[in-house]
Amino acid sequence: MDETSRGQSRLMEPAILPVWLNQRAISNRGYIGLWISMAVIIATFQLGAGGVAGLPLPIVIATIFFANLLLGIVMAMTADIGTEHGISFAVYLRAPFGTVGTHIPSITRGIVAAIWFGIQTYLGALALNGIFSYLTGFDNWVIWYIGFAVLQVINTAMGIRAVERLAKIAAPAIMAISVWMYFTLDGLATASGKDIWSFAGDAEISIVALFVANMAFWSSLAVDIPNITRFLKVEAGTKSFFKRNKNVFLAQFIALPVVQSWIALIGAVSFIAAGDWNPITVIQGQGTGITLVVLLVMVVLAQWSTNTSANLIPAALTFVNAGAPWITYAMGLVLAAIVGTLAMPWLILDHLFTYLGLYGAMLASLGGIMICDYFVIRKRRLNVPELYEEEGQFKYIAGCNPAGLIAWVVGGALAIYAIDLSYFVGFFTAFALYWVLMKAWILPKFKQDELVHTDDEKYLATSINRNWVYLDGQGMVKMDCSSIPAHALSREDL
Asked: What pTM does this model have?
């Protein structure tokens, strides 16, 4: 593929090229910081409050913890796509869905991420409005929404290093303020004669429903986590899954379950103390001066640090993948902000659990397909150069792999039908159906070279200390860091 053909290729844009080992900027501490920041979002308060409305608090916290622990297994597996090959979520989906078919599930995920961006930005704007309304008397959340959205887009456009730096600053501040919030709310509950640990609500809610709702909560990042892990520092030259992904494990199996449970606990205590799931509202109603400002600063930091990594980056990359080479990374970020705003997030927030259930069902089936394709069918070997070829092995039928599309639609539909068990129904139905369709129909008709020639040296990257590098005139080639020439196509999202 020469310079002319690259410039016209709908599969090629710098932001969606593989990330080299020497470009992976996120440290173990930085990745943990990202997850601490992402777990501290206001919507998590609602999960805890919704659970304690009908279940004892210890049961609620244990349910949320183990749900996140189980989902961490899915995340750790899909994360390997990024750590091994350095590719993004939408580019990888070209393998199970085709170079055209990828756009259907990936844009669906992109829209979900954009809507979450809108929700988070709205909540942050309310906090900013509260701060400045208290200090100056100026009261207009719309102005703060626009300003906050622009600030987040600019921060994310500065690259993954800027995103990581924000998380490192925000995470400890957020956790410190959250501890203060807990003791403040516990004091309110005690003052009103309520014991948070013996409180029992009378709403009808099952442990299973709460468990599934929490898995649906992070089902989006469980599929597109390669967008972040492709920038994560790794131990190169090892084929051990655990050594290669050791920087993933602390975040997925400790930081996420612990922090998510902690924030849900605060939401639950807020409900017990004041009958309101939102502790921000409760404390804001009683706070004044510096107390109020500190509380609202925590809200802004939490929304900001979550939005950059969990929502803006995934949304932008799916839009870049769909619009390459005409949509750049910066344009994708702006588009994500516009879509998230047009979705009117202030209305969706009132129906959060319905929203979680519907998109969680569709993305659960997508996770089943990804894990089946990557681990079971391809056994982690991936013909990455062909992912960027319009007439290559991933063209399938007019650019679409019907096995992936059928499994995704059927798995998603059954998950919505069995909404109380949506994540499990969607994941395992899509996993099994995709495997059957690939083995019986697609693989006999469409040769997948990594399945015919099971050569680790040819189809693995990080495991053998190599990078997938695009060179004009040569296409995608594999080389070690010291051999990458200066004229290799550079990235725009570092």
From this structure: 0.92
